[in-house]
Amino acid sequence: MRKLLLALLLSGVSLAAAAAERAIDPKHSEIRFSVKQMGVPVEGQFRRFEARLAFDPAKPEASRAEISVDIASVDAGSAEADEVAVDKPWLDQAGFPRATFRSSAVRSLGGSRYEARGTLSIRGKAREISVPFSAQQQPDGATLLSGQFGIRRSDFGIGGGEWNESDLVANEVPVSFRLMLAPAR
Amino acid sequence: MYFRILPSRPALAPASSKDYGVTAQLGHWLTALLLVGSFWLGWTMTDMALSPTRLRYFSYHKWIGVTVFGLAVLRILWRQWARPPALPAQMAAWEQAAARLSHVLLYLLLLAIPLSGWLMSSAKGYQTVYLGLLPIPDLIGKDKALGKQLEEVHELLATGLLLVIAVHALAALKHHFHDRDDVLARMLPGLRPRGERK
Known about the structure:
The complex is a heterodimer. By secondary structure, chain A is an alpha+beta fold. Chain A is built from 3 helices and 11 strands; from the N terminus they run H-E-E-E-E-E-E-H-E-E-E-E-H-E. Chain A has an 11-stranded antiparallel sheet. The two termini of chain A are 25 Å apart. Chain B is mainly α. Chain B has 4 helices and 2 strands; from the N terminus they run H-H-H-E-E-H. Chain B has a two-stranded antiparallel ribbon with strand order 1-2. The interface between A and B is medium-sized, with 19 and 17 residues.
């Protein structure tokens, strides 16, 4: 009985230290990006990704995120664009099948706004980024985390050679995401 | 000797009821030139694999289409103010009717083809951004099946335009070399209509 009590207490302590991990609802979650070609924004997204997320609005510092994106699941607007996107000069799916983000710190920006800092790795290159996001409590207890940030293709060596001539394809790539966290249990 | 030095009359308006003005001539030949480029790009780019060059060709093709559309609107408005010269009186009634019909068709197609291209582009998920600077709003959202249908419409209309242009050009040559009237000459900048040559 004592042991059980102790175990319960300990689990309570560990829960307090780090927010509980919550599953994401893939149907209501998305990771999108936009690539500007000769001034034309072309919307794309990654259809498959895994996310290990722990988020507690009361203790944002205890939150953490690990997101792993399946490069092969890219939708770059058309079948032929998909082929080019996963090819070696671009995302190089064969060499680097996954892009990852791992948070190092999460802090509140006031209200429902937060900021996650962490490491984004694409094509084997890691960059420190900061991702502002907002958390919206849903009526069913789920939490919607959404935000956007920008990356530069050149930071990750995405799309080299003749694709980088003049302003054919913009270097800046806006990324937006919506991650629906299942209700905390 | 057939070439007029700078006209003494106002340059923009038709010289006489027998001539097109410089503005109408410019609109006509600029459109002709743009169409040559647009057709060549249209045929070439659709056979290419995705590459930077293909991306450029698609953009140029769309920019030309927007320009041709804009020019067609301006030319139609201009015609209301500076009426085109009358057709030669010796033309048979059916010939006159055919000439009018072919011109109506030309203008309709010059409007309809860019419109269908713009809609197709939207349906395929690509906004048209004129000269890479001026975004033209999407009237319809991304819809693959609709995009495919509009592609067929665009191609069909373009083929139709080629046919009407062929008739248009052959008729102009027939007027010039067979009927020996002013119909072709009056659309050639700087060329004095036969009636005024003495």
